[in-house]
Amino acid sequence: MRSPAFALLFSAACGSGAVPILVYHSVAENGDALTVKPALLEEHLDYLQRAGFTTVGLQQVIDHEDGRGSLPTHPIVLTFDDGYEDAYSVALPLLKARGMKATFFLISGFLASDAQQRHRESGNSYLLWQEALALLEAGMEMGSHTVRHRRVTELAVHDRRFELEQSKKDLESGLGQPVHFFAYPFTVQHFRARHAVRTAGYRAAVAGPHGGGDRYQLQRTTVHRYTTAGDLRDLLGESWATAFTGGG
Amino acid sequence: MLGLLLASALAGAPAAATSLGPAPRGSTVLTAVAGRPFYSVRVDHGIFERADVGAGIDIASAGFVRPMAGARVRLLSERTVSLALRVAGGMTIPTSNGGYGPRAVVRTWEGELGLSADWPFAPRLSGYVEMTLLGQTDFKAEHSANFGQALAGLEWAPGGPVSLLARGGVLQGSRGRALIGNAGVAWRF
Q: How far is B189 from chain A (nearest CA, A)?
């Protein structure tokens, strides 16, 4: 059991994000611990709607931070990492049915042009370019998740730069619009990685539960297969002071 | 009878700024204030000439209570100004979903570290400023945060063991800031 003294030190080291950001991965009946069943995603989305949250994109959050534009009263960002095929076939219809939006972080090297060439790896199928475009046309936001889903903290400087810059370039070319946001694969990052993301021209980047502090390590809450709607409510809870200084 | 008691109390010597800093050894101060974000009641007891210990409870209409315990140490007294360090710890216990929207207030450990200065600038009036660091956690990254707080206040001691307090300031966190303030009464016995 950690002591309250540790708690103070721990809390001093952590930031607290303004807008909650959830991270989902695959949405399917079967899969690993990070694969959420479609029925569970529906429960989560219904809960968020019922509770009064409004889904926004990262662009809105960062614009608001920069003093451009506003946010709804109870904003939340939904993110989906890796660009699995079910982002298009399962998550998109559920989001559209509720008028919600999400940010999808795509691995540019895994996007294929036709169904025959669809990238498959470890039992997972990844998006096609036309499916990614359909997500975009449906009002979803796109971000980069590197070229090959490699841990940016373990790469040599030139490899890291390639993963960050090439994926941005490929996605911008394929989607026909700027890509401003990045998600660290496996949510791992460090100072040099954050610096490289900034240098590559991204406006912000999302990390994992231990993010926080600045816009290149925005904290995200991981949702997994066993996260119930009740768990989600607890995870989205906040300290009184965070709520109080957030303007109520 | 009550009038006599009150008159007797008010006839005593004017209070020093002991409600703002550590209570002198052997004395006890009961303080009750109302305001935002809390309504608070606390008792402090001087265990040394320069240090006291205390406990109290903060109650918020937003749906939580916060029992806290702590200590204050007078670091130095220079002519009329004195400097004190305050440490406190406790826990936020939600009592309802509260008024902060869909994000429920969660149970967190709380810690405060404050540095305050007080000075009596009139016979019955003292001023007070405090800078405080606040930390909160439930050992989950999602619910760990730190804040800074700046407060300034006044204590008016009309006579006897009772004095009136008023404080105002700002609580600053990563999401923004909020005004805080309270007023109340302190009773030394």
A: 32
Classify domain B29-188 at the CATH class level: mainly beta
- Whether B95 has its CB under 8 Å from any CB of chain A: the answer is no
Q: How far is CA B29 from CA B40, B59, B129, B171, in A?
A: 13, 19, 19, 25
Per residue in A98-145, pLDDT (tens digit) is 999 999 999 999 999 999 999 999 889 999 999 999 999 999 999 999
Residue with tokens 């390639």: A162
> Which of A8, A210, A245 is facing B135, going by the closest CB pair?
A8
Calpha distance B171→A155 (Å, rounded): 41
Is the Cα dihedral B18, B19, B25, B28 positive or negative? positive
Task: Pick the closest to residue B40 from B161, B151, B172, B160 (CA basis).
Answer: B151
Q: Label residue A215 exposed, middle or buried (CB < 10 Å: 0-12, 13-18, 19+).
A: buried
- Dihedral angle computed from the Cα positions of residues A163, A169, A175 and A179, in that order, rounded to the nearest 10 degrees: 80
Residue A80 pLDDT class (50, 70, 90 cuts):
very high
Q: Assess B144–A contact: CB distance below 8 Å, yes or no.
A: yes
CA distances from A51 to A40, A46, A47, A219, B15 (A): 16, 8, 6, 21, 51
Q: Check: CB of residue A199 under 8 Å from CB of residue A207.
A: no
Rg (C-alpha) for chain B, rounded Å, is 17
Answer yes or no: do A234 and B104 touch at CB < 8 A.
yes
End-to-end CA distance of chain A: 32
> Which residue, B171, B133, B182, B39, is CA-closest to A243?
B171
Q: Do A51 and B102 touch (CB under 8 A)?
A: yes
CA distance B93 to chain A (A): 10
Sequence-distant (≥ 6) Cβ neighbours of residue A43 within 8 angstroms: A228, A229
- Chain A partners of B177 at a C-beta cutoff of 8 Å? 245
Contact yes or no for A184/A164 (Cβ under 8 A): no
**ipTM field:** 0.81
In B, minimum Cα distance to A18 occurs at B175
Record the pTM: 0.76
pLDDT in tens, A172-206: 999 999 999 999 999 999 999 999 999 999 999 99
